[in-house]
Structures are given as structure tokens and as C-alpha cells.
Amino acid sequence: MASALDNPLLFLLVIILFPLSVMAQTNGSISLGSSLSTSDNSSWVSPSGDFAFGFTPVADKNLFLLAIWFDKVQEKTIVWSANRDNLVLDGSKVEWTSSGELVLSNNQGRAIWTSQVTNGIATSAAMLDTGNLVLWNSSSDITWQSFDHPTDTILPTQILHMEAMLYSRETETNYSSGKFELLLQNDGNLVLFTINHPTKFIYRAYWSTYTPNTISQMIFNQSGYIYLKQTNGSITNLTSGNIVPTRNFYHRATLDFDGVFRQYVYPKNGSSSRNWPAGSWSVVWSVPDDICMEIRDGVGSGACGFNSYCRLDDNQRPSCLCPQNYSHLDPNNTFNGCKPDFVSQSCEPHGPGKEPGPQFQLMEMINMDWLLSDSEHYNPFNEDQCREACMVDCFCAVAIFRGTDCWKKKLPLSNGRINSGVGGKALIKVPIGNSSSQFPFPPGPNGGKSDRGTLIIIMSTLLGSSVFLNLLLLVAILLPVFFNYHKILLKHQPEQATPEQNCLGMHLRSFTYKELEEVTDGFKQELGKGAFGTVYKGVLASNAGNLVAVKKLEKLVTEGDKEFKSETTTIGCVHHRNLVPLLGFCCEGSQRLLVYAFMSNGSLASFLFGSSRPSWNQRIHIAFGVARGLTYLHEECNTQIIHCDIKPQNILLDDNFTARISDFGLAKLLQVDQTRTNTELKGTRGYVAPEWFRNMSITAKVDVYSFGTLLLETICCRKNVELGLGDMENVILTDWVYDCYTERRLHLLVEDDEEALKDARRLERFVMVAIWCIQEEPSLRPAMKKVTQMLEGAVEVSVPPDPSSFISSIG
User: Fold this and answer.
1) Which of 440, 571, 616, 630 is in Cβ range 3.0-4.6 Å of 755 for a Cys bridge?
2) Catalytic one of 645, 663, 753, 759
3) What per-residue confidence (pLDDT) applies to 372?
4) 741: closest CA among 788, 659, 802, 675?
């Protein structure tokens, strides 16, 4: 082969280009034929030095990951990797070959990863300051880039197109593909899934943007905001709140190993502030709010592995724990589930006279449940019956008792969570003989039977010897046992615990009236006025300047401090992403005030009935949110809460236009007579269910009726009653909607909204669900859980009857 020295023109070209190639290398460019190895401790660095590409050791010093990382961050933060599921040994290398591809070879010279370029042979390459490693062909077309093949992280300027996905890590230090996936589906929904390994089977989504048929891209822009770009060019913001500028902060968004998608910032140049400390990544936005409660699929292990349970820690991050007498399968991966540390109860029959003594007992854990794994369900049952049913069943590993319901669970236990909104208690079967002092909670009323039995055995043994000696020994043993047991009872009193004690983790605060006067600047800025009080805007100086909404309750029954505080704290324990969080209260003299998180986008009423019509997909998202919030209040929190006043004015919208139900606790703080007499639109067909005026018992179905009306208003973007329409047929929305439905004129309901008409099947389904909800006979209305399932398409919606037909037939 001829060298450059044999050809004067070629030699001259080399002399001219050599300085340029050196300059390009120092500016992030990579020379053809360049290589990196695990032993040379070098990397390809971007021009600013912010990012680097190369090998980094993981776990074992002999194992290496080919990756891109933030190079100026104290702890190396990896944002992309080529071989996350196939680590290489020392002696491996990556080379930009003459064929124009990046090739990773192991220590035996076998290629285990290649960039697989398109659009011809790559002739230039560079590590960019965006964190993107790019290869170009001679026409400057991109033939391959790391941004097109993300792992668990995206960076500013990165775009996810249809079918693009992120996979979480296995653990914080194990970069292998984990059990969570973020996917931009080809139907336009951005969703989070759990995945079964090793089959890669995808379970039902536990979070979604609910943006079907409209979204084409997810964009992380240069300013640090993440949004969805619709096919018509409009955008839907995902990032909520104010985002710090990228010129002063590094940004990344990562699907973490715990299944939460978080956006992080890191101060550049060692600068820091109260909110963003130097030398660490801080979370500015994340979804979902509580993954422990969000994953509700009918199969799989949930957020944590089998036989474990999920709980949010003080930093609002999920942690996976094992019940007593269970231990983690892998101590290095607590999300991988737990195993019992004992032999399960035997199912072998025992002959007459050969029955063994009690070998198992039930340990209590409050506010815990495993959603799946049911083997039996009994109702009505009391707690003693529930305990007995589990104790005599050799297949029963746990019994869940809540209200009058008893569920028996079998191994493996799945989808476990502990949360104040769960309610009830788990009765976990464990062997006798393990020290009860190790239990997270002491035994319940019947759980002490086994302890008394143990004492009887001890006493019987002692009495078999000298009576005098036995008495001395008995006194010596019982005195410390008595005092120790007394101390344990004083320390652990779950059955008598006050709501404040059970809700410590929710940080509900008791304010003085003077404090709230200062917070609201003398109750100066009024946000709104309702039937039960006035809401004022305020700022909590002690809470990093967070805005709050302070509601001064009027017409409230005068209660003792203890009752009001107890009930309010109970409401404070209710937590769901579609409820407005209660932050605190004031109970001073005759003053009763509630302090809520401030919702920046106002009420659904102003959103729906303003000058411009919200998009169809925004309205769908809001309807789902209200339905899920009501489902939680009716069926999933500790005690059922009937809202009694569902209407657009009581649905608030947060920074991301997520629906948040407000005033959901007022029904618990008001007398029944007040709730009835103060309901708006009394005597008219509107939000108020007919049973309010028929002296019938009030159930959760009144909220279902109100939701049906609200759903129709959300579909049509008009109020339930509008007297100025001219055509009397259209004045009452519920009547007009049923007429349009039966006459197949649904296009009139959305005023020929093109976006809604393209989604005709969903539009019809939503209308049918709403008509079922506004049935005048309460028994015909579905429960909110079924309403939510029908809206989601998980349950078929049958043809609804005329809402007033049942009443007419018996009138």
C-alpha cells in the first residue's frame, strides 16, 4: 500500500489537515481510528468538559461500562451506556473503525456492541456539550447518535419520538435493565409500565398522560422544560413549577430504579442556594406522586417484589420492606422481594389425640394491605372471626381486616403497600417463639393469647418443684416481665393512637389565628367564596415561600377542640394526586380555618367556561383525574368520605392542569342538616342528586350523580343550566345530552370540535357513562370505581336508559 510520502499531493494534504484534526480533537471531535481501552484511563470529552465518553468501572473493579457521564459532577453521573446488560472485563476497548462504526470489543477481541450506523459510512464524530455522541457522514447527515438510543436518562435538547423508551436500572448501582419502562406509544400516550423479567411482559400502565392520537414527540428543551408536542404543533407541559436556568445548572430527567420519572438539577461551578445545595442533585419534578399507591395492576408484584410492601420514606421516595420473619431475597436489591424465614404452616392432618399445640400467631400491621393474592373474602365478619379463619387455614399467610370485610391472602403476597389511606390492618401469620419485642407493632387484642399460654407453661413447670422455691422464682420472673410489658404497652398503643399520632408522616400543622393573619396579609386577597366560607391567598414564609389557600369556615358547627382537631387530622391523612393537599388547620376560639396547597390554574369552572375552549385531551385528562379522586375517597381511603358538593368550582387545577378535588373533607366537619340546606341549586336538576329532596338515605351515589353532571359540562364546555341560549330545549344540559345521544347528534355537544370528533368512540363512551351517572334512581348509578373503569375502557358500557324513566314508571 502506498504511503503519503510516495504521493506528493497526498503528503501535502496531510500536512494541511493535520493541525485541523488536532484542533478538532480538542473541540470534542474524534479522529477516525481513535480508540479507548479500560486500562488507559482516558475518555473523549466534550468541548466544555461537561460530558465525557469512555469506560467506567462498576461494582467489581474488573467489570466496566462503556458510558457517557457528567464529567464535572463530583460523583460520576452516568446518562447513557452501550453495554448495560453485558459488562466487559479489563482489557476491553472501543474503537471508531475504518468502516465508520463504533465497535466495543471484549478482552478476547470479540465485538459485543456496535453503533450500527445508517445513511452511509460515518466520516466524522464528536462528543457534544449536550451530552450527545454523534457520527456524521460526508454529507453532514447524522448516521448514529446516542440521543436516538437512550437508556434511563434524557438531557436538554433531546427528543423522544414515537416508540422511544427508557428503561430503569436494576438498582442504584446496578446499571442492568430494571423492571420499569417509560414509553411514548404510537397511539400518542406517554406511559409508565412495570415489566416482568426475563420475559419482558409489560403490565398495565401505572401512569399515563392520557393524550391519545395527538402526541408525536416528547421534548426536553434547552431551557430545561419537558413537554409533549402535539401533531397540530401545540404543546402540553409535563414539567410543573419554575425551572432553574440551564446556564447555571446541569439538568437531567431519569427513570429511576424505583419506577419514578424525576427531573434533577445540579448547580454548576460549585454555586449553591437554600433550595439547590452545591455538590448534589436535587429533584424539581417527578411522576407519579406516590408509586406505592399508583400501581394497581391485577398481576405482578407491584412497585416492590413479592412478599414485600412499599412505603414512602421521609424524602417521598419509595422503599421496599419485609414483614417480620421475612427477609429480602437479595440484600443488595430490596426491590426484588422477600422470602419467609420459616416453614409455612403444615396442611398434614393430625389424628385424634395428636393435635399439636399452637405453632403460629398473628402479628398486626396497621394501614397495610397486599392488593392481590386473595384466596377468600368474607362479609360481614368481625376481627375475631377473621383471625380464626386465617389461623385454621394452612394456606392463609395473611388476613386483611377492614370494617366488616375479611380477606385471606396466600403466598406469594403481591402489590403490598402501607399508607394511612389504606386503612384496616394486616394480620400476618408468623411462628410462635420469635420475640414479640422485635415486632414493628405489638400484638392486638387476641395476639396476646399465645404470650399468656407461654406464661402458663412456665408457671406449670415451676410449680412442679419445691413450692417455696417456685414462689421465689415466680416473683423474680414476673416482676421484670410485668414492668417490661407495661413499658411496651405505654410505648405502643396502636388501637388507642390519636389521629395526630397516626398521621405524623403527613406533617399536618396546627396554626394560630395570628399566624394565618400574617400568612394572608390580613386576609387581603380573596380567591373565592363558597357556601361554607371564603378562601384567601397566602404565603408560608417558613415553607420556602410556598403559596397556600386559607379557607375561613363559616356556618360550621361549634365543636370542641379535640373533635375538630381529630377530624381534621384524619382528613389530613387522606392523600391522593387528585386531591388538594391539606397542609394544616386553625382551631382557636370560634375560629375554624383550613390551610390547603395553592392551585395555580384556578378552578375547573373558570377553565371550562372561559373565553377559549380547552383542548379535548385536556378535558379527558381532567375527567379521569376527578373520577380517580372520587374513587379513592369512596373506596380506597381509611374511612369512606362522601364529598356531597362535587361541582366545577370545587375542582382545582395544579401547575400541570391535573384535576384536584377540593373541600373533600367538609362533609366530615359539617352536620347533616347543614350539608343539605347549604347545597347549591336545591330543588333544581343540577349537581344535587334527587334523593336529597326525597327524604332518602344519602350514600356515595350522590357524588356519582354530581360527577355525571360535571362530566357532561367537561365534555360540552358549558354550564348545566344556561338560561340565555334562546332554545328552551338546550337550557338543561342533562336533558339535551340525552336527546342528542338518542338522536345520534353528538357532534352538537362538542360544537363540531375536530379533536373530539376524531375521538368519536371515546366521546360516545364518555356520554354514555355520564348518562348512567345521572340516573335519578340511585341503585342504577354505578359506583365510582366502575365509573373509572368504564371511562378507561376496561369495562364495557351498556346502553343507558332515560335518566328519569325509573322514577316515571313508579310515579
Assistant:
1) 616
2) 645
3) 85
4) 802
Q: Strand, coil or helix: what is 253? A: strand
pLDDT, tens only, 601-641 = 999 999 998 878 899 989 999 999 999 999 989 988 777 88
Residues of the chain with pLDDT under 50: 1-26, 351-357, 434-470, 481-483, 485-506, 559, 671-685, 807-811
Phi, psi of 401 (to 5 degrees): -120, 125
What top-level class would CATH report for the domain 26-146?
Answer: mainly beta
List the strands of the sheet with 591-597, edge to edge. 509-510, 582-588, 591-597, 546-553, 533-540, 526-530
Beta bridge partners of 694: none
Nine cell digits for residue 282: 436535587
What are the E-state strand segments in 420-579?
A: 425-431, 509-510, 526-530, 533-540, 546-553
Enter the pTM of the model: 0.56
Q: Is residue 536 classed as helix, strand or coil in its secondary structure? A: strand
Print burial letters for 771-789: b (CB count within 10 Å at least 16), e (below 16): bbbbbbbbebbbbbbbbbb
Chain mean position to CA 679: 33
Q: Report yes or no: 624 and 631 within 8 Å, Cβ to Cβ.
A: no
Are 776 and 804 in contact by the 8 Å Cβ rule? The answer is yes
150-288: CATH superfamily: Bulb-type lectin domain (2.90.10.10)
- List Cβ neighbours of 612 (8 Å cut-off, separation of 6 or more): none
Residue 645 annotated to the active site: yes
In angstroms, how far is CA 250 from the centroid of its own chain? 25
Which cell numbers in the block locate residue 517?
A: 393573619
